[in-house]
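Batch manifest line 175
LIGAND: iron/sulfur cluster
JOB: complex structure
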Amino acid sequence: MLPFTFRSYKRKLTLYRKSFRKFLFVTEKEPPGGINQLTKNTEPEVWKEVDCLTCANCCKKMTPTFTQQDLKRIAAHFNQTPEAFKKKWLKKDRSGDLVNKNQPCQFLNLEDNKCSIYEIRPVDCSGFPHLSKRTWSDYAYIHRQNLDYCPATFKMVEKIKLLVESGNAAKKQAK
Ligand code: SF4
Ligand code: SF4
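JOB STATUS: finished
ARTIFACT:
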């Protein structure tokens, strides 16, 4: 597994972003048969090839959404009231969701890319990047956004695209 560098990731994005986004648009509207099972089967393969501890790009360049439960749990951990915690670290985004004021996230240890509140981190963080959480067509628009930051999302789209296109090619040959 090669260590992640944002520069090399940007280079890969330059080459593949347009075709991956097009694939996501097309398959969002017309999901190929079996794609949801394909994503579930493919996710473990993705994690064999991506090491989040060499990346932490989501913690550096994105923000989780904090639920009220996240807020209460994390504030209590720091012996703060939810209000005090919110005032210090959070803001509302355009949708009214609670998000981090700072990037990188204040809880990221930049020395080792580890989350300093890992056990009690926001639920949004614990599932990110939600590779097979919802159906492909329900989540393709989020994959399109995450593609710009997350190598695991990139890998997932790359693998699914290859599988779908090779399946289509095989079907054409069989005709
Ligand atoms: S989830 Fe994606 S962006 Fe976050 S550390 Fe893992 S590979 Fe990097
Ligand atoms: S809370 Fe932890 S996992 Fe979530 S963004 Fe911050 S450092 Fe990353």
